[in-house]
Please model this.
Amino acid sequence: MRPDWIVSTNDAKYQRVAGGDTYPCDAPCDTMDLIDATSFPQRVVATVDVRTTIVGPPQAVALSPDGQLAVVSAPNRYAAARDECVFENYLQVVDLSIESPRVVQRVPTSHHPQGVAFHPSGHLLLAATVGGTIESFAVEGQRLVRTSEMIVSSGRLSGVTFTADGTTAIVLLRDAQGAAVLEVEGSSVHLTNERISTGVAPYAVDVCGDGRWAVIGNVGLAGLPGFAGQLAGDADTVTLVDISRRPFRAVQHLSVPALPEGVAISPNGRWIAALTMDGSNLKPDNPGRRERGRIRLFELRDGQAHAAGDLPAGEAGQGIVFTADSQYILAQFNVEKMLAVYGFKDGAWGDTGHRIPTQGGPCSIRAMPGRRFSTTATEGPA
Model:
């Protein structure tokens, strides 16, 4: 059986307390966990020290299609003397093929990198930056070689992903709004004039394995630069995109609770999951404050997404992924420092009760690209 690997990064230097930002003294290193999700219960098989941050889309880590390489983005460090986070410009390459996985390379970038994605063939990696650029890297063995840089926007970019056939990529224009479509020919990447309509501040993007659908999470006004107003847990949106033919087009905007930080579409193209903060990131005196976030689920049938479940989640949740068999969901509970596992059983989604502890607050999570699994994993309780 082909293994189903998932990687989760954890920001240990930061802790959200009652909606406020804190930086504990003597915090341990940030980490990346390699998770074996081939069967239930899913488990961590390796942990690597890295640098990462909760600031940015929860797709600042990527896993190669063969599971031999991981790339960690969004590095930062806390400067205690100045009481500020310093955002750095490099990618970290983690060699997972060795007995004790570790960072084997730091690759400079022109701007602070956010979302990263491997091509389904594994020969190419894209990094979206806060400087509005897409930076391309050739994958040569266990190393990256920077090959090109392309200006996509004058504002920040966020999530990026390849389509399942590898001929195109979608990158989110967090500040300029909408999504841009990139053409991929071998190792060359070109910006097209195609744009996809989204909600406000598109943040995370995912595609299914059958090549029909993409899903985009939009975090609303909270995701815009310099926003100085007060929000009280307003509803936000998730955009369903038909990518089965060109030009790609948004076909549905789904209302979800506030701040859908993480969105995912199942490899079999049947389910959409949005991990929303739903006010759990707000301070106690805010009327929109709630103790826990929500996972909103949709089922895709007859070319539309239909409501399929609403489950309690954690406080200020981050990323979310499906396992390769589309039977389980892993959701990052940032404040609780754990991953929660949800499962599909007896025709409905539910909380399995299984938790995977993390050393810091989990902040980014990705699965292997190009997954088209149809097998059924060993069933656990739901």
